[in-house]
Amino acid sequence: MAVTWPLYLTLAAGAHVFLMVFSPEYAAEGQSTTIVLALTMLLATAVGPADVVLLMAGRSGLSLGNNLAALVVNMVLNVVLIPMFGVPGAAAARAAALGTRNVLPLLQIRRILGISPTGAGLWRSIAYAVFCFGMLPWCVQAALGTSVAALALGVALGAAGYAVLLWTGRERLSLTAFKALLRRRGAGRSPAAPSTPAERTVPPMDERTPAPPDRTVPDLIPPGHLPPDLTGPPDRTLPDRRR
Fold first, then answer.
1. Angle between helices 148-168 and 122-130 in degrees, nearest 10
2. Segment 156-192, tens digit of pLDDT
């Protein structure tokens, strides 16, 4: 939430400025839709990965039922709201479907597993983000006008204040756990000291290479006693195999 809420709140506070990239008409018609969807994502990120917890607990049937319920809500509200409100009605239907998909798993894991995403720093984190990236940019735009410069000034002031608030409340927000994690990972990746190999004395090459064995074939027939047919060179003519 400390990372994602500033993004969605900035999008909601500066929806008109962001949509002016396309056209003034587009910004006027799409501002409410953008704000509704951005605020819906605040709820989705605040709940956390509740559906993943259900799957890890072996409750895939509940997860399937929650997704089917969200699909039904989305389809029914689209049929009802789009003819009445157009694109804002579609955004409202989408927001209701996302809320169904996130709130149902939250209630189920709290009832079945006794797990809740709320903690000591939850409301503090919400207050910091809403003030720095919701109220402050909106107030600056209300005073200076809706423009890129006003939005940039409001976001810059909010980011500076947000950094100070996170640093002063890092203990209550449990942000110091990341520092310990980084230290642990750095210690695990530190290279080990190279081991010094044992000194070995290598003998010279002539001492390591044994002398080849004496393979001289003794002369079994004394000279001068060879038969006459063996005194000449051997006949190496190949026989005619065609016969």
1. 150
2. 999 999 999 988 888 887 777 767 666 666 665 655 5
Q: How far apart are CA 152 and CA 160, in angstroms?
A: 12
Residue 85: what residue type?
A: F
Q: How far apart are CA 114 and CA 106, in angstroms?
A: 10
> Position 36: which residue type?
V
Q: Are 17 and 153 in contact (CB under 8 A)?
A: no
The pTM assigned to this predicted structure is 0.66
2/125 Cα distance (integer angstroms)? 6
Q: Which two tokens stand for residue 24?
A: 């003034």
**Distance from C-alpha of 186 to C-alpha of 172, rounded to nearest angstrom:** 25
Chain-centroid distance, C-alpha 141: 35
User: Helices 87-112 & 60-85, crossing angle to 10 degrees?
Assistant: 160
